[in-house]
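Quick one - first record:
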Amino acid sequence: MPTGIHDFGSYLPGPPVPATFFFTEEELASPIAANPLFKAPTTRHHVTSERAADMIAAAARPMFDRLGTEPAGAVDLLITNVMLPDHPITGSGAETARLLGCTPHWIIDLHNGGCASFGYMLKLADTMIGSGAVRTALLCNVQNGAGQFFSQPHVRKSPYAAVAGDGCGVAYLSATGGAQLMGASVIHAPEYAPDLGLSGTRKYWEPGTEELMVSFPPDKLGDIIERGNRLVPEAVTDVCKQIGVATEDIDVLITNQPNKMFLQNWRQALGVPAERHIDSFDDYGNLYTAGVPVTFERALRAGSVADGDLVVFAGFAHAGDMASAAAVRWSG
């Protein structure tokens, strides 16, 4: 029996934050602010005091209510991917299980994968369900860096900071019923991992007043953009070949939401019209790891996905060290 996806849930913290939180009106009109790589979304949401586990619980509880089931006894496998884990040692998975009142057989804090993690988690869960090791799985993606990381007084004036938003997306899978997971593809390119780091001279755990932020080597930006343009279509094309369809046959394409430039380039490369590539960037910004499940959940509630639609989820991570795609025949 193929793995089925039963439902999605999402949570967005706090009221919408306008672009003027980062820049003045004059700065927003500057050439760099108009660059498609750095153009700020209209709004985004920021974490204030919520822990990642709290965000997951807020996204998951309404989903379980809709499904008419309690998490206790209904989650064999719990996987989390959190940009800033609640605890650097224990992660967020165990606390999430405690808040939901469940005791999974497996709790995996999957720290790698970033914006490609949802497809990666789908493939991992499908493998474990297919092996008989588990029958149910809860996948949890949390972006919580905008309000805690990119909102630092000096960092928030960086052109990177204004595109980030916070949110959480979850999905519930099982070995019976649900929307059929048809195939998944994961591409690893570990040689590119060193091209993403943190700015500054101190280690992140060392004391100091220097603000740290995500950093890309300036001389590698062109290469990173090329990887991003290439990797998502490559992963999507691979999963479409697995299931014997052309990329043009995709009914709904859901990708991570880094910026408008990547979104346009991806759909053009795949031959997917703009109306079939869901764009949530202006409302939520770059949700990083949570971009795919949150965007899809909101599209579901808006009625933009019909039963029988071929849905493809895709994304690339960091500076291009991973990409993933997964195809689902939606029903539910």
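second record:
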Amino acid sequence: MEFTLLLDPQSSVPCYQQIYAALRQKILTGQLAPRQRLPSTRALAQSLGVARSTVTQSYDQLLSEGYLQTVVGSGTYVGDQLPETLLHAHSTKPVHAESPPPLVLSAYGQRLAELVAGPSPEPSTPISFRYGRPALDQMPLGIWRQLLSRHCRRADWLDYATDPMGYGPLREAIATYLAQARAVQCHPDQILITNGTQQAISLATQLLVSPGDTVALEEPSYLSARRIFASQGANLHPIAVDGEGLDVDTLARLTDSIRLVYVTPSHQFPTGAVLSLPRRLALLAWAQRQGALLLEDDYDSEYRYGGRPIPALQGLGSGQSVLYLGTFSKVLFPALRIGYMVLPLELVKLFSRAKWLADRQVPTLEQAVLADFIAEGHLERHIRRMRSLYDQRRQTMVTALQTHFGPRATILGDKAGLHMMVRFQTTLPDAELIARAEQVGIGLISAAPQYLGKSPGHEFIFSFTELNEGAIANGIARLATLVSSSLQP
């Protein structure tokens, strides 16, 4: 059989790819019919004036993709069925029942359906003081790409992980880092790698809290954690927060049997209060007496401006009453989705099984890159650089608030972390203030949803990390002009 193939010797596309593309096109358009015999590689090579190996390479690619098939002793033929047809299922008419049965949810599903669904909307204004974003433009992407390229040359990360606890070198790097930076006492075998803090809280709730159990938490506190506890059917008991963090005396006076206490001691969310050392010791002593567990969420402890960080709760005690949670979403970038838990030894096997059932593993490639990023000192250098940058932006925000609002704005929790909470003396309801701010390009986040009980109102979460100093100063000045007429004397 003879047919024409046109090759362009001046093209940057290799000849074998040109032959492959031309033959594939003829097969798809029907110029070469199913089961039609093709010339031998030798004959086609002579006809085209190319090496036989070039034609062989083209045929091999078409064979591997299913466009051609070989018959021993007979030759090479066009395949019986195009590969494209195997990728599409035949359409069928849907079956419509006259009266479909009602959908029945489990108790967990019913509780989840009653909760507010999905994440809260965030401002999309030119100047947004939204919380949770580090300065992504400062991420050392060049170093990250180099490490990523290093591991992409290998293929061992393509398979299932053998340890549901996570990538061994990453757990070792985290253990070393936590011992130096947070005085956490742990062995790498106690560290479980999770898909962010959300999964860590979810696993802890599933394994440690039964419907009807009481969970104590700060008031106000992290909304997403509260929703996870509620979805499990826990009774939530809010404990007031003041300038020294969680009021441990109030907790100790409770007559309820507390199963779990969720706490953010290093930079309370959202007030920013730091749990004082005496209260930390009192909380650990209470947990030991009561047989309760403490869920310590250390979400942004890397950033403290002036003074050394207070050691983590986990490092102050025996470690058997505390489940320590950390994340790299705030210190590096949110899309990384790598968090971790430091578990008491007696819970390691149980959490390992639960993690395996939940999702098998966190992607190995990202874990391997992060392990090198930490072990080679890049993380510590990045944190030092960002601490200096964030401190400048924090001071700019504090100065702007004091200049434009004076005593009519109370700043809370600005000595650590990635945000501060500001309480305004204003007659405007939160929703109206947010709406007015949005009209002039300013995005605000109210602290009200973080309260389990009634919010005092007029409290807002101000993040200073992803805005430069000019945008911060401009945003606060515009906000001051907007609300000046509603501020109380």
